[in-house]
Amino acid sequence: MSEAAATLDAMTRLIALLRGVNVGGRTIKSAELADVFRGLGYDSVKTVLASGNVVFETDESVSVARAHLEKALADAFGYDAKVHVLDTASLSAIVDAYPFAERDGWHRYVVFLIGADGSRGDLSMRAAELDALANRVTQLAPDSALESIADGGPVLYWTVERGHTLDSVVGKAIGSGKEKTLTTNRNLNTLRKLLR
Predict the structure, then answer these.
(1) Which of 89, 120, 146 is at the close of a domain?
(2) 83 with 116, same domain?
């Protein structure tokens, strides 16, 4: 096998979910974002929607890619970048395990615990800070007529009535203070687009 073929075989398709992009006054154009990824030597770079979702290929591990991306994004755009990186198999398993049925007038979200190992549903693989956050949020006992939350290991599964995302019990818990830097949320429909 040639060296070029061996390199191609070692490439893995990864997905980067950037926290806080194009919200709260931080605007990053998709073309500029893709340029940062290409500048790191990543291949097949594709941005999806304008909310910090990037599909790319690399021979780096998830944790190495995450460290490189956070530094490169901080350098390029001047902010404390937080990025969750996982492979497509992990994302597919997370999407397939979504526990709440689709309901008219409701959002279906996946709350990613930034840096939690996305390859396992094993709760022991979460860092202590992420585990404490997940336990705190899942024990809030939200009003089931408005929202529901479930622990999925590297993620929290959340469904909430439209119009109540920010003012719900869970929305307030993950959207304020230090907690908001530990998570990034995506709609289930967006995650399915990332897997196409």
Answers:
(1) 89
(2) no
State the Cα–Cα distance between residues 34 and 3, nearest whole angstrom: 27
User: Which two three-digit tokens encode residue 180?
Assistant: 């908001």
Cα→Cα distances 23→98, 102, 143, Å: 26, 26, 27
Paired residues of 63 in beta bridges:
none
Tell me the pLDDT of the chain (196 aa) as tens digits: 445 444 445 799 999 999 977 666 678 999 999 999 999 999 999 999 888 999 999 999 999 999 999 999 999 998 899 999 999 999 999 999 999 999 999 999 999 999 887 655 555 568 899 999 999 999 998 888 999 999 999 999 999 999 999 889 999 998 877 778 899 999 999 999 999 8
> Is the distance from CB of 148 to CB of 139 less than 8 angstroms?
no
Q: What three-state secondary structure class fits 111?
A: strand
Residue 32 is inside which H or E element, if any? helix 30-39
CA angle (143 as vertex; 137, 149 as ends), nearest 5: 40
Domain that holds residue 186: 92-194
Exposure string over 88-118, b if 16+ CB within 10 A, otherwise e: eebbebbbeebebeeeeebbbbbbbbbbbbb
147 contacts 160 by C-beta, under 8 angstroms = yes
151 Cβ contact list (under 8 Å, min separation 6): 123, 134, 135, 138, 157
